[in-house]
Amino acid sequence: MKQEIDLLVNYPKAKRNVEERGNEKTEVDRALARQFGKEFFDGDRRHGYGGFSYFPRFWQPVIPTFREYFGLTETSSVLDVGCAKGFMMHDLAQLIPGIAVKGIDISSYAIENAIDDMKPHVRIGDARKLEFPDNAFDVVISINTVHNLNREDCGQALREIERVSKGHSYITVDAYRTEEEKKRMYAWNLTAQTIMHVDEWKLFFDEVGYTGDYFWFIP
């Protein structure tokens, strides 16, 4: 456990003009994005996704990797921390029939607009205090979420992920390896409050007791 591994290797890679996006973004845009409301998901591209809709080409290529790596079956249970509109959960349920999926997100807008079949399985929730028992899920997944908290709260969220999992979890976080990547990351970033060098992240995982797997988002 606790290895650096890219389980999103088959997630489609978008072509990004990081410099252009950085020049366009203002602190007003970032403040609006951090509300995680309609503007972030379905508003202007300057504030977030510019339209957050379901497309099978995104998560369906990733689910087989999760299934193989974690040994997921129809008897498995998975929690998605930062589930947004439940798209990854939908594809888990589609490709692994019978699997139990749950999701939480801080955004009431995302939960209210979740994909229809996942609405019974998602709820508004706080990553810093997951309202589930200890060892409740076989696997806990959190993609590009915990870094949206400040350092102290990020650590608390990682401890919560650790608590509710049965020893298997996977997160991705904003990170950098070089000064050039750091510059690009800060230009690109809209919502993250905790961004660190990859080596700093590894030390942080040890510090807070996170023992799951991880990888980086580096634009």
Largest sheet: 7 strands, parallel
Along the chain, the helix and strand elements come as HHHHHEHEHEEHEHEHE
Please estimate the helix content.
25-40%
Low-confidence stretches at least 5 residues in length (pLDDT < 50)? none
CATH class: Alpha Beta
Per DSSP, the total helix count is: 10
- Helix/strand-derived category reads alpha/beta
| Share of β-strand residues | 15-25%
Broad shape: globular
Q: How many angstroms does the end-to-end distance come to?
A: 26 Å
Using the 3D structure, state the CATH architecture. Answer: 3-Layer(aba) Sandwich
* CATH overall fold name: Rossmann fold
- Quantity of strands, as a count: 7
Mean of the pLDDT scores?
94
The CATH superfamily is Vaccinia Virus protein VP39
Q: What value does the Rg take, in angstroms?
A: 17 Å
Sequence-ordered SSE layout with sheet pairings:
Elements: H1 18-24, H2 27-33, H3 38-42, H4 56-59, H5 63-70, E1 77-81, H6 87-95, E2 100-105, H7 108-112, E3 122-124, E4 139-143, H8 151-164, E5 169-176, H9 179-188, E6 196-197, H10 198-208, E7 213-217
Structure description:
The protein has helices at residues 18-24, 27-33, 38-42, 56-59, 63-70, 87-95, 108-112, 151-164, 179-188, 198-208, and strands at residues 77-81, 100-105, 122-124, 139-143, 169-176, 196-197, 213-217. By secondary structure, it is of the alpha/beta class. It has a single domain (34-217), classed as Vaccinia Virus protein VP39 (Rossmann fold, 3-Layer(aba) Sandwich), CATH 3.40.50. Strands 1, 2, 3, 4, 5, 6 and 7 form a seven-stranded parallel sheet that branches. α6 links the parallel β1 (77-81) and β2 (100-105). The chain is globular and about 45 Å long.
